[in-house]
Records
---
Amino acid sequence: MDEVKDQDQLEHYLQAYQLKSIFNEQILMHVSLAHFKQGESICTQGEASQYLYILVKGKIKVYTTSAEGKALILSFKTPLEVIGDIEYLRGIDFINTVEAVSPVSMITVHHRWLRKFGQDYAPLLNFLLDIITRKFCVKSNSMSFNLMYPVEVRLASYLLSISSDESGYLFNGQLGTVSLSDAANLIGTSYRHLNRIIQQFCADGLVERSKGGILIKNREGLRALAGRSIYE
């Protein structure tokens, strides 16, 4: 994490997302802007939660790790999103691991300032309530999506969620064996069946598979198939 000293840039994000209204003057004095590199961990499952993070630029992935060491991707997030809200309100360690899958900018504020100046500040509490209830709605929709739609639709949505709009390549350059396992777990299918669907997408001209990874060839075709990106 690199803390940014550019006050103008911080002010830009506060204004762009109308965040000044959720913080009082005392909290605003302790708000900072931080940059994370692609692949950098923002928080780790089980570690002490100290900061509230507000995503204002880039894309992140949220995943959990089992006691056996197996990772399961839960979702991908784009602005505006909050990380550490439940942890702050409940006073617990981070529930999941969050990683930057593109260069990311986040507004950060330490818990001690939120507790000191924001415990009874209604605009902040209403903002957190709105964010948390929205997360529950997204999770519910995602579960329904996995039950109601075929694997082809789910995979198209997944590929759109993890791909870079600028280049069409998947973040990290490739969708390897581990990533394919994660994808199969997230969308609720087997690794073998997922491979068959990818082969079909290649035959249909939607994606191209090579040694370097998977390239999206027809983004509009995937969007038409997916209908919406449920994993964001």
---
Amino acid sequence: MDEDKKLLIRDFSNYFETTQKFPPLISKIYAYLLLDCEKKGVTFDELVEVLNASKSSVSNSLNFLTQLKYIEYFTKLDERKRLYRIVPDNIVLRLQSIQEMLNNEKELTRKLMEYKLKRHKDPEESSVLKSGIYIEHLELAVKQLADTINKLKSLNQNTSQIK
């Protein structure tokens, strides 16, 4: 494995450990699969060898990522070995997850603002104003995510029609 790939795997692995709260091996596997640019798939044995991990640990990690629908497996015609790869709509799924989280946060913030209004009865109170500004920000972020998701879905539809 070349040095650039090693560094990218390390950086992405650290990122997934922080943002997704993945354990180190799951993060490394996900990062390694993310760098399978040709989407040819990676075998179980390759992951065990490259990551220098036990078969049971790799198996558990692959099952975890498969259950989350972050990765999928397939077999080639006349072959028995499973090949693992990132799901084709990986970016769309991640953005939809973020969008759902932001929508939930927006609703909770709205409830908090209503509660503060009942308690303080002053719509100009600082914490009420801050909540309103934050809700406005979340609404813009959710709208921008929706636009991006629609563009990606449209691109996916256009590329699948070409094939």
---
Amino acid sequence: MKVFITGASSGIGEALARECHRRFPGSTIGLVARRAGELERVAAALAGASVHRYRLDVTDRGALARAAADFVAIDGAPPDVVIANAGISAGTLTGEAADAAVFRRIVDVNVTGMFDTFAPFVSAMRARGAGRLVGIASVAGIRGLPGAGAYSASKAAAIAYLESLRVELRGSGVRVVTIAPGYIRTPMTERNTYAMPFLTDADVFARRAVDAIVRGDSYVVIPRPMHAVALGLRVLPNWLFDRLFARAPRKARQ
């Protein structure tokens, strides 16, 4: 098994790397992240795997393309699984001048970074007629949450992009898997000061996520109870949604 994972130095990305290592002994795993020290720490935990570390920011398209080319060149074959997991979050308010750059950065990482993660691999995976392109979205992309316009917009865009890509690749043998986490216990959620229903440990999330990847599920919400919440949010009338969420707790701004 050959797996390429962005945002792999902590949280969901680290948990997915560990679960792939546990599930597929002897795998070749590419770890992408910005923090060299954390990359080394995660790589050290994957004993027995062929681990390749790429220190880069997913907003650097050229660096991602070079990392992808290097990873393919290891044995001349594209990866079996590419997981676009890199993501950031912060509260944003429209009209606050200081939030404009934060908004752009969140969208660049969470949406454009996903496109640029997949792009270097698609042709080779199509030519082989097999593989999984996995995008980590979020339940926050189902409806726009107050104070989290950038994050909700980026995850809604990710869900729509992955759906478009799934249809584009239909019949090619390459499956596109959208995974929408609820609240997962990670450094990102540690900053939240409000209640997080169905909070799930990252290793539990990773086991269920890899199950979905192996099956080739088109779309899955983890944990399962959050799936019902997501369905409810989809069909909630605007007037009721607005009333319920107008005073909802908000993400901290940078």
